[in-house]
Amino acid sequence: MPGEKVSLSSYFINLLFFLYFAILFAERLQSVVRSIADPAVHPMGSGFHRYVYVMTFCSLAVGVIFLIVTNYALFPALFTRSAEVYAKVDLGTLSIASGILLLSGMVHTEYTIAPLQFVAYGALIIAMFIRTATVTPSSGNPALLWLSLIYLTAFSMAIPVMYESQIRLSTLFHVIEAVTAILLVFVFTYFMRIVFVGDATNLFFWLPMLVTAVLDGVLIAMRWKEKVNTFVLIFLIVTCVLFCVGKTLSLVKK
Questions:
Q1: Residue 110 dihedral angles phi and psi, to the nearest 5°
Q2: Contact call for residues 18 and 101 (beta carbons, < 8 A)
Q3: How far is the C-alpha of 103 from the C-alpha of 98, rounded, in Å?
Q4: DSSP string, 140-205
Q5: What interhelical angle do 170-197 and 47-71 show, nearest 10?
Q6: pLDDT per residue over 22-71, tens digit each?
C-alpha cells in the first residue's frame, strides 16, 4: 500500500547487503588494480596467478551485472523504508549475487586487505542473524534454527582461501583448492538463500558436511609439511562438532 513502511529489520538487512557488496567489491578491485600497476607483480606469470586474477575479475564483473539486473532496487532502498520499493528487492537473488561475489574473496591476490574482507563478511553474517531473529517467533524449533545459523557461520569460515603452494604436487593441490572453494561457496550460497527466503530450521545435511570434511582434510594434509592452515582446521573441527550436535537434535525432534 502507498505510504506503508517496512520494518527496521528489513531496512538493516538491505543496508548490510549493500555494505557487503560495496566493501568486498572495493577491496577486490583495489587488489587487482594495484597488482596490474606494480611491475614486480605478474598477474599472468603462472597458472596459479592466471586463475586467481581471472576468477577475481569474472566474479566482480558477473556479480555486479547480476546484482544490477536482478536487484537494482537495493540502491534506492538505502534511502527509504517504503514497502513499495522493498517489494522489488529479492533476498533470494541477493543471496545468489553475494555468492558470486564471494568467489573473488576465496582467492589470494597481491595487495589483499584481509581486515576489509572480514568486515564485508561480517555484514553478511549480521544480516543472517537479523533475519533469523525476525523469523524465530514463527519457528517450530527456535533452538535448532539458531544452531543451524551458528553451524552455517562456522561452515563459511571453513571454506579455504586459495593460496599458492610450492609442494611437489602443487598443480594437483591448486586444482583441488579451486574445486573446493567453488563447491563450498555454492553450498554456502544455497544455505544462505534458505536463511533469507526459506525455512532454515534444519541445515544439517549429510552430503555438504561430508564433502567439506573430505576436501578440507585433503588440502590440509597435502600442505601439512609446508604450512598448516590452522584457521581452516579449527573451523572444520568446530563445523563437524556443530553438525553432530545439530544432526542429533534434529533426529531426536523427529
A1: -65, 150
A2: no
A3: 9
A4: S-HHHHHHHHHHHHHHHHTSPPB----STTHHHHHHHHHHHHHHHHHHHHHHHHHHHHS--S----
A5: 10
A6: 999 999 999 999 999 998 888 888 889 999 999 999 999 999 999 999 99
